[in-house]
Write a structure and sequence with these properties.
This protein has helices at 5-11, 14-26, 43-50, 62-71, 106-115, 134-146, 150-153, 163-173, 194-202, 212-230; strands at 33-37, 54-59, 76-79, 91-97, 117-128, 175-189, 231-232, 235-249. The chain is of the alpha/beta class. It starts with a helix and ends with a strand.
Length: 251
């Protein structure tokens, strides 16, 4: 999927703002070598660097990497996929925010994370968990089916695991999970087109190749369906459910 890094920074900067909490969980130390897996436009990598760590950013989007390099030219950013990467030098920690729900090859991603860590290195991540944006996704799929597009509606573009499912995958690889939480986090979306913008940014794979008039009709249908649940006090919200984990490489 081609990312609009300008729209990401302007309308969806909440991704980085919430990620600052995950940095506190990471607790980067001066001189540590840390990998930011799915670094986006680089804002969280810069916050980690400011704490004294040596940070490397990784993302599979050329648009995101280009923007990150322009914003933070003093940070190393690599164009690589989260399920197909390796480094000669091992890291003290791997940090990831709002990325791993995009990786359908989850076992391969865990393998890459494990292999790039030093012994006793830590993996700290937050991403969409079971039930994440269920109202919006259900409405989008319903709208696509009503337009005679069941194959598109049935596409799988995200991986939203339960806490037990994901921690089991980590343990099977050799991680010791020291913290795990699955929680609701209703998230404010900017401006009057909040839900439409969210789908244009994150659900674009459902709309690519469709006529612009058809896309407008689908987005309006989605907005109408989720308004009773996702529009409150004059603002649109995304019904986020997040999974947050800390795991240590034990063997």
């Amino acid at each position: 999927m081609k990312w609009n890094s300008v729209l990401y920074d302007q309308k969806h900067d909440f991704v980085s703002k919430y990620g600052a909490d995950v940095i506190e969980l990471l607790d980067p130390q001066n001189g540590e070598n840390i990998l930011d897996l799915g670094c986006g436009t680089g804002d969280l990598a810069e916050l980690i660097r400011a704490r004294g760590a040596n940070i490397t950013g990784l993302d599979s989007s050329p648009e995101m990497i280009e923007t990150a390099k322009a914003k933070y030219p003093f940070i190393a950013f690599d164009l690589k996929s989260a399920d197909n990467f390796s480094y000669d030098e091992k890291f003290d920690a791997v940090f990831s925010n709002a990325t791993l729900h995009w990786i359908l090859e989850k076992e391969q991603a865990i393998f890459c994370i494990y292999e790039c860590l030093k012994p006793n290195g830590r993996f700290v991540a937050e991403f969409g968990g079971k039930g994440n944006v269920a109202n919006i996704v259900t409405a989008l799929q319903d709208a696509l089916r009503k337009k005679g597009l069941p194959d598109i509606a049935n596409k799988t573009i995200w991986y939203f695991p339960s806490l037990s499912e994901y921690t089991s995958l980590l343990e099977q690889k050799g991680f010791r999970v020291t913290f795990a939480a699955h929680f609701d986090r209703e998230t404010l979306l900017k401006d009057t087109n909040g839900v439409k913008n969210w789908i244009q940014m994150f659900g674009r794979s459902y709309l690519d190749g469709l006529d612009s008039k058809l896309v407008d009709d689908i987005l309006t249908t989605v907005e109408e369906q989720v308004k009773p649940t996702n529009y409150k006090n004059g603002n649109w919200y995304a019904d986020y459910k997040r999974l947050r984990v800390v795991a240590i490489k034990e063997r």
